[in-house]
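Quarterly update from the structural biology core.
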Amino acid sequence: MAFKLLDMAEKRWRRISAPYLVEGVLSNEAYENGVKVDAPNV
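Predicted structure, tokenized:
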């Protein structure tokens, strides 16, 4: 069953188009339209 779940999920996965932004996203930096912003609009 786990194999089937992974198989179905794999069909929906997409390649990361901006791998250089992953580190910033994981460290909770704010981005707007792919551009880093200094202060998020809260």
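The chain has a mean pLDDT of 80.
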